[in-house]
Specification:
Shape: elongated
Oligomer: single chain
Strand order of the largest sheet: 1-2-3-4
Distance between the termini: 81 Å
Number of helices: 3
Radius of gyration: 24 Å
Length: 166
């Protein structure tokens, strides 16, 4: 019987080790997956930038170069994104000062239905995640339940960054 008790303890020890290894592997896989989701949301293949214009009012952008390699000014861009219902877009207008977003507005272009509901949700919650932040640090993935509208927003930011480069 002593032999069986020793074998039972060995089996229990091995099971504990296996459970720990599985738990650690799962934790590492989940944390790696979250990092991948954050970095790949900017590379959505359905995202399409449709336009980018400087609306500083002068007709040309004579703004001074600032830290972060962006010119101060007000910029606008339309960002298109794909939904199950088709192509949608939003317009983003923002003001940059020292590479920081000091003001921002979004114009909704939803064709209706769910797209309008999700754009409404996005508009209700995006500002607090953007205003006062460096433009290079802003990349939205889900805002107030809206997960596709941020793709159009991020697409607009990419176009604005290109336009504002010093």
């Amino acid at each position: 019987m002593d032999v069986h008790k020793g074998m039972n303890k060995s089996i229990i020890g091995i099971l504990v080790i296996v459970v720990l290894v599985v738990a650690v592997t799962a934790a590492v896989a989940l944390s790696g997956n979250q990092a991948t989701q954050t970095t790949t949301s900017d590379n959505d293949t359905d995202t399409d930038v449709t336009e980018s214009t400087d609306t500083s009012g002068s007709g040309t952008n004579n703004a001074t170069a600032v830290a972060g390699n962006y010119k101060d000014g007000t910029y606008s861009a339309a960002g298109a994104y794909r939904t199950p219902g088709g192509q949608e877009s939003i317009d983003v207008t923002l003001t940059l000062a020292g590479g920081v977003i000091s003001d921002i507005s979004v114009t909704q272009n939803a064709s209706g239905g769910e797209a309008k509901e999700y754009q409404d949700a996005f508009v209700s919650g995006y500002k607090s995640q953007v205003v006062g932040k460096k433009i290079d640090e802003v990349s939205l993935s889900r805002v107030a339940g809206s997960s596709l509208t941020p793709n159009g927003f991020n697409s607009s930011l990419t176009a604005i960054k290109r336009e504002a480069e010093a």
